[in-house]
Amino acid sequence: MTHTSVPSVPDTLWFTRCPVPTATGIAADQNWLAAEFASDGIAVRSLQDAGADGYRQQHFTHALPTLIREGGNVPALWARSRGEETRLIGLTWIEERQTILVAPGSGIRGAAALRGLRLAAPRRAVPIDFRRAMALRGFEGALASAGLGLDDAQVIDVSGDGYRRPWEAELNALRRGDVDAVYAKGAVAVGAARRAGAEVGVELDEIPEVTYRVNNGTPRPITVHRFLLDNYPELVDRFLAVLLRAADWAEDRPGDIARILSAETGAGAEHVADAYRPGTHRSLHPDLSGDRLALLAQQEAALRSHAFLSEPVDVHTWADHEPLRRARMLNNVP
Q1: CB within 8 A of 305, min separation 6: which ones?
Q2: What's the number of CA atoms in the CB half-sphere (13 Å) around residue 208?
Q3: What pLDDT was estimated at residue 2?
């Protein structure tokens, strides 16, 4: 009989996060992740600092068995849908300014005004086109808030190939008059919009119902490869415990979080202040509440309807509540 042996404790733990507010980014900035595992002889490395495209692609595929990821839900759901053995161990909800941008002087204001307009949907030759997914979902949310759907407007494909800056292709199309509206979110989008002279036609953050703001980062998942969770659960628990401590630390330090966010996003302090609501520094704690899981399930269904997912993902069975529960115990949190 052949026995499959579990290798010794890994010599490297990998993490990755999106350039947005995350407890992972804070913990990395403070060097707490490296310090936590130093006595075990385990290095903790960021995919963003790996320098090799093969490693960086793992941010989307999550095929690296020793990776913990805090990032957008589109790639996370896509990886699970295509069969990658990941588990969902946390969700955050952090409001990043979501807007529908329009040409200056157009007079387009409010979600109802999107009826019949040409909506920019970027398209790139990548395995998972999360920016296209974000645009479609942003427009869907805005339209739905006015009792409308995507069929009440025109979706116009805009090639994003060859553009390095997010939203540059769509905003160029807006400036040329090829489209009437562009979805954008976060600090980088604030800067891009200002450079392009675009105006805000719809502020999605002003819509009271959170269901209209469900998108790639709302809610944002923390996922881990099943190999790591099954074989070394204590490492995952300790990693999560560090993230919980980082979220605690952030609660009383808005200035520090603004500095970290400026570095994480690369957008600068002014654009960060414009993109994130006061109190963002108090909203970094992950959980797996029923409300957040329901919002993620809503996102999963929408992504599947747009053919971004090849197979359905049952978010409730994907979720494992135990690592977060054990991490709270490590931090003596009920």
Answers
A1: none
A2: 0
A3: 45
Please state whether beta strands 118-123 and 154-159 pair in parallel, antiparallel, or not at all (unpaired): parallel
Q: In what order do the strands lie in the sheet with 154-159?
A: 154-159, 118-123, 181-185, 98-102, 199-203
Is the bond leading into 104 cis (omega within 30 degrees of zero)? no
What is the β-pairing status of strands 199-203 and 98-102? antiparallel
In angstroms, rounded to a whole number, what is the distance separating the alpha carbons of residues 177 and 163?
18
Instruction: Give pLDDT tens digits for 94-109.
Output: 999 999 999 999 999 9
> What CA–CA distance (Å, rounded) separates 24 from 205?
24
Q: Would the pLDDT of 1 be above 80?
A: no
User: Does 320 have pLDDT greater than 90?
Assistant: yes
Q: Where are the extended beta strands (E) located within the chain?
A: 12-17, 43-46, 67-70, 86-92, 98-102, 118-123, 154-159, 181-185, 199-203, 220-225
Q: Is the pLDDT of residue 19 over 90?
A: no
**Residue 278: pLDDT band with limits 50, 70, 90:** confident
Rounded to an integer, what distance in angstroms lies between the CA atom of residue 334 and that of residue 325? Answer: 9
Rounded CA-CA distance 312/81 in Å is 6
The predicted-structure confidence for 173-191, as pLDDT tens digits, reads as follows 999 999 999 999 988 888 8
Class of the CATH domain delimited by 12-94+217-330: alpha beta
pLDDT at 330 over 50: yes
- Three-class secondary structure of residue 200 per DSSP: strand
Alpha-carbon gap, residue 304 to 319, rounded angstroms: 19
β-pairing verdict for 12-17 and 67-70: parallel
| Same topology between domain 12-94+217-330 and domain 98-213 | yes
**Residue spans per domain, the chain:** 12-94+217-330, 98-213
Is pLDDT of 54 > 80?
no
CA 302 to chain centroid: 16
Contacts of 199 (CB under 8 A, 6+ apart): 101, 102, 103, 104, 105, 106
* Whether domain 98-213 has CATH 3.20.20.220: no
pTM score of the predicted model: 0.94
Checking if the pLDDT of 55 tops 90, the result is no
